[in-house]
TrEMBL record:
Keyword tRNA processing: no
Biological processes annotated in GO: mitochondrial protein processing; protein quality control for misfolded or incompletely synthesized proteins
Signal sequence residues: none
Record's protein name: Related to Mitochondrial metalloendopeptidase OMA1
Names of the cofactor(s): Zn(2+)
UniProt cross-references to InterPro entries, sorted A to Z: Mito/Outer_Membr_Metalloprot (IPR051156), Peptidase_M48 (IPR001915)
Family: Belongs to the peptidase M48 family.
Listed Pfam families: Peptidase_M48
GO-annotated cellular components: mitochondrial inner membrane
Bound cofactor: record note: Binds 1 zinc ion per subunit.
Location of the Peptidase M48 domain: 161-322
Protein's organism: Saccharomycodes ludwigii
Length: 352
């Protein structure tokens, strides 16, 4: 999600209000990494959060009679991992995804209904000028992604997606935007002032669109069993749930989240360039984001290594590094054809 460094994609699966906390850049939200952890209730009424079965796992790990079973489990797990490696479009990064597409869409549908319950009174009508403007920009991004000859699989990924644009006009909400699995797009009007122009808005929308193209929702959920196993293994060594969470967050979870955010930045930049939006504006957008963080985030920003998102300064530097390739794509794209299509209103019906 386009966020104030602590994204919706970070805790996207806590649903409801936590979804609305996910932003395009980082907003300090406290110890959000605990939101998904189960609580193990004890018979005496007390409870322990996190990896409550660590002692049993330790016995299993060091019991000689169980080692052959562990070898089978880990061997089978390794084979399962290798056979479920998937390649992301545009960036071509290999990642582990086992979650079926149909389940990913079900999660998106459930989340969509929950978000509608919370934002329904603040949504602008479908024929509102702002809604139509965002829809036009998003159409160009979708069309550009589909027409990319070097990523033919994109068409298969999104051919059946039912795209729908929602503008949340609520000044109480922080600047935000996200796209759910299944193609439901939410843009908060509070982010439009930071975008300032169509190229800035395209930077935000292409980033969120890229999350769905790369199936980051499915990738995130596919990692949860792996994180659980890592937590149990660490608990067998340290005996400390708190220390385990700190290690996993700093060394595994947060870097993985930042990697996906960086990948979405890259994919989005290439798509917006192909769609004839000026990629140079992406640098300006992140400068405005950085200024917003400094003036509005009075509590201060989290250290990057404990954040789900790269810092705005780092993202700005990344954009500068990628600009030569993006500008090349921008200059090679048939932008006159795009303008003609916009003038004639000749885009295919991608939205409802």
């Amino acid at each position: 999600m386009f966020r104030l460094r602590n994204s919706l994609l970070r805790n996207k699966y806590s649903y409801s209000s936590n979804i609305l906390k996910r932003t395009f850049f980082n907003i300090p939200t406290g110890n959000g990494s605990n939101n998904l952890r189960p609580v193990y209730n004890r018979f005496d009424g007390s409870h322990q959060q996190g990896n409550g079965d660590g002692a049993n796992f330790t016995q299993l790990l060091f019991d000689p009679s169980s080692r052959k079973y562990l070898a089978i489990i880990f061997g089978g797990g390794g084979l399962f991992y290798v056979t479920h490696l998937d390649e992301a479009p545009v960036s071509h990064r290999k990642r582990f995804i086992w979650l079926p597409r149909i389940l990913e869409l079900k999660i998106g549908e459930y989340t969509y209904n929950r978000v509608l319950q919370e934002t329904g009174q603040s949504l602008l009508p479908a024929n509102h000028p702002l809604t139509l403007k965002v829809e036009r920009i998003f159409r160009r991004l979708v069309d550009a992604a589909i027409s990319d000859p070097q990523n033919a699989n994109v068409r298969d990924l999104i051919k059946d997606v039912n795209w729908k644009i929602h503008i949340v006009n609520d000044p109480r909400m922080p600047p935000n935007a996200f796209v759910l699995p299944g193609g439901k797009v939410f843009v908060f009007s509070s982010i439009l002032g930071i975008c300032q122009n169509d190229n800035g808005l395209a930077t935000v929308l292409s980033h969120e669109f890229a999350h769905q193209l790369a199936r980051h929702t499915a990738e995130n959920l596919s990692k949860l069993p792996v994180y659980t196993l890592m937590g149990l293994t660490l608990y067998s060594i340290t005996g400390s749930s708190y220390f385990n969470r700190l290690i996993l967050d700093a060394a595994i979870r947060m870097p993985a989240s930042r990697q996906m955010e960086t990948e979405a930045d890259y994919i989005g930049l290439m798509i917006m360039s192909r769609a004839c939006f000026d990629p140079r504006e992406s640098v300006n957008l992140w400068k405005r984001m950085e200024n917003f963080e400094k003036t509005q985030m009075k509590g201060g920003m989290p250290l990057e290594f404990l954040s789900t998102h790269p810092s705005s300064d780092r993202r700005m530097e990344n954009m500068k590094e990628w600009l030569p390739k993006a500008i090349s794509i921008y200059e090679q794209s048939d932008c006159n054809a795009f303008r003609n299509v916009l003038t004639r209103g000749g885009f295919p019906t991608l939205f409802v």
